[in-house]
Structure prediction request, 117 residues.
Amino acid sequence: MSDHFELDFFKSLYQRLPNDKRVVSILAEIYTHKGLIDEGLRLDQKLVRIDSNNALAHYNLACSLSLKLRLKDAMASLRQSIKLGYNDFKWMLEDNDLEALRETMLFINFKKELGLL
Prediction:
């Protein structure tokens, strides 16, 4: 499936199913992967609104916020994701989307709190 086809397909699905959690999540990921960070962020925010107890949704929102250099907001979303059960700390320490956040004292102190330092 080509990237262009995949994007068009999920945009079409989203128009018909704007509150389908899977569609919102996949389209947000496609947007972010294609560098359309604002669109991905908008959908990540929506997904957190419609599925507020989803740890992965909060993690993905943290990633989008980090990419937008909204680092305090990213840290708050990351904290919420862990509170809700996100526990892939190895990936969190490698994920390129969190690179800007990882360079902050907010994140360094957070790693200390989690015992990851």
